[in-house]
């Protein structure tokens, strides 16, 4: 490790006093004045710490500052850069000399109500790359003037909605000069009432539409309220593109769909694409047969309003579905689709995503899924690593409380939710549940699903349709959330048993039909509603499945709401006994009572 050369002390006493006063003022502003500040050690005590080499001290200071050279700061929100580490400057002269001599500690700079801190950090950061966050529009012009001499060092520039407000054009000089080291640009002009919303980025900063090489190193671009023309050179080489409310203010300024595809095609290196209420194109015809491949895309996040093209368009589909149908994504891409739907609008998964595995490979690759009630699901595909393969073979993924989980590797998936922004309930909740179940089954009927977790609410017919669509399931879990009723439970159990003639004298088997999901080995009912015939219904279900050729369950896992009142323990023991009587039909019966495990 090479030795670190310390900076010299100030030449004159007056310069030293001026710097001390400046830092003291900054310290009072950015550090809690009531915090405990250690007294400077005396000469005898300081001798030990003086023997530590500067490289070791740098590592200590970096831990305190949480701004190591390889650290990726949290850039997309208003979290401030940590400043508590500045207290090391007051410990002793040696520590302060070291802290001031490490430029990397001063490169992450928040600029708020004054620019003195920016001035101090620009000096002490030396030639280190700069991460600048601007929070206040009143200091934007001053900050831009100071940064103009350091444009070659700016690595990331974040301008929040308050700073952008009405003064974003103050940064025009930085854009005109160019920032050759800029890797990340975040501009938020979505603040209500700002005149910048719906403006083109190039118009705000008076740049030519064909401007080249102003940000040759740019890899991450986030725009809120602003938009880019499709020919912008900023798009080339991007790895992250995030657009929020990023569309022209007028319909006439919207791109054609072909122009939008041109913009995406200019970004073959994209790894993350986020379009939240940002589909800045119009659909004019339905004969666009062009597709754009994004082979490196790892994450696609879409928030799409339920609009069906434009008034003059013959295309009867949402822009979200239309866009996805013209993309070719990798199997490992993780996709999230969020669609607010008004109460009177028809809810449908198929309105927002195309039922086409060529566009969405996860439709034929998913092996586990969660259907979270009406109009929300999440599916994923298996991870090929050895650990996940072992967990898969042991059926441990969905066991609660085992503490052993799969790895965090990117394996691809699709999450989708349709919500009502006003949170009004539908007139027929069971009908909504059944409709969502049928569309889910239609989407993933070709997928080799092995695990499925679903929520209560569908009817027996809805559950039955789902079970008949995924005959290869080996793990099935019902989440009752503590709100399921006796009817909800019976609908699930009856559908699991297969076609039966249920009457007052019990169930009669229809031996001409096969059991749904004959390979089912693990069944969990979580936060189940207890009713008097639950154990009897489960027994009838298991006998029916056996008679129809289904294999024996390896485990039946039931989590019940604990009984209330003075007889709670007696009632719980009685319920447990009834369920454990099913042991002749199941290899293992596991019974729990809401956070209390029964041994």
TrEMBL record:
Domain named F-box: residues? 49-110
Matches recorded under InterPro entries: F-box-like_dom_sf, F-box_dom, LRR_dom_sf
Q: Which Pfam families match?
A: F-box-like (PF12937)
Q: Which SUPFAM superfamilies match?
A: F-box domain, RNI-like
Protein's name in the database:
F-box domain-containing protein
What species was this sequence derived from? Lentinus brumalis
């Amino acid at each position: 490790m090479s030795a670190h050369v310390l900076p010299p002390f100030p030449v004159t006493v007056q310069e030293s006093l001026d710097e001390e006063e400046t830092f003291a003022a900054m310290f009072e502003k950015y550090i809690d004045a009531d915090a405990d500040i250690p007294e400077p050690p005396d000469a005898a005590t300081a001798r030990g710490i003086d023997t530590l080499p500067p490289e070791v001290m740098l590592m200590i200071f970096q831990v305190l500052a949480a701004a190591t050279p390889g650290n990726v700061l949290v850039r997309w929100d208003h979290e401030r850069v940590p400043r508590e580490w500045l207290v090391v400057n007051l410990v002793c002269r040696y520590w302060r000399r070291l802290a001031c001599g490490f430029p990397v500690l001063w490169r992450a700079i928040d600029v708020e109500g004054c620019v003195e801190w920016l001035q101090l950090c620009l000096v002490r950061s030396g030639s280190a790359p700069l991460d600048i966050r601007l929070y206040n529009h009143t200091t934007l012009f001053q900050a831009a003037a100071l940064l103009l001499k350091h444009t070659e060092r700016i690595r990331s520039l974040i301008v929040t909605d308050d700073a952008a407000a009405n003064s974003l054009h103050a940064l025009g000089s930085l854009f005109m000069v160019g920032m050759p080291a800029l890797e990340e640009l975040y501009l938020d002009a979505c603040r209500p009432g700002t005149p910048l919303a719906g403006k083109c980025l190039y118009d705000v900063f008076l740049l030519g539409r064909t401007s080249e090489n102003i940000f040759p190193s740019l890899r991450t671009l986030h725009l809120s309220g602003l938009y880019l023309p499709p020919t912008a050179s900023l798009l080339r080489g991007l790895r992250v593109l995030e657009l929020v409310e990023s569309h022209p203010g007028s319909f006439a300024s919207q791109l054609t769909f072909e122009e939008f595809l041109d913009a995406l095609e200019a970004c073959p290196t994209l790894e993350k694409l986020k379009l939240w209420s940002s589909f800045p194109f119009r659909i004019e015809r339905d004969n666009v047969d062009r597709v754009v491949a994004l082979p490196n895309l790892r994450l696609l996040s879409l928030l799409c309003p339920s609009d069906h093209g434009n008034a003059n368009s013959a295309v009867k589909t949402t822009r979200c579905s239309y866009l996805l149908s013209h993309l070719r994504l990798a199997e490992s891409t993780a996709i999230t689709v969020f669609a607010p739907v008004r109460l009177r609008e028809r809810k449908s998964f198929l309105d927002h995503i195309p039922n086409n595995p060529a566009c969405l490979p996860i439709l034929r690759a998913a092996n586990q899924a969660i259907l979270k009630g009406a109009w929300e699901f999440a599916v994923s595909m298996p991870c090929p690593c050895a650990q996940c393969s072992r967990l898969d073979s042991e059926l441990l993924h969905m066991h609660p409380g085992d503490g052993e989980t799969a790895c965090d590797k990117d394996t691809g998936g699709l999450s989708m939710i349709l919500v009502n922004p006003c949170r009004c309930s539908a007139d027929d909740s069971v009908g909504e549940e059944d409709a969502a179940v049928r569309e889910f089954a239609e989407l993933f009927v070709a997928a080799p699903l092995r695990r499925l977790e679903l929520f209560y609410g569908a009817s027996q017919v809805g559950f039955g349709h789902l079970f008949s669509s995924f005959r290869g399931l080996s793990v099935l879990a019902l989440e009752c959330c503590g709100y399921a009723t006796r009817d909800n439970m019976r609908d699930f159990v009856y559908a699991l048993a297969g076609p039966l003639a249920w009457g007052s004298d019990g169930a009669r088997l229809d031996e001409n039909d096969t059991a749904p999901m004959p390979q089912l080995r693990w069944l969990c009912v979580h936060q189940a509603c207890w009713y008097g015939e639950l154990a009897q219904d489960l027994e009838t279900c298991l006998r029916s499945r056996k008679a129809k050729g289904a294999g024996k369950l390896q485990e039946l896992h039931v989590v019940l709401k604990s009984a209330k009142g003075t007889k709670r323990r007696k009632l719980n023991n009685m319920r447990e006994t009834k369920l454990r009587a099913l042991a002749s039909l199941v290899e293992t019966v596991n019974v729990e009572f809401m956070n209390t495990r029964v041994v």
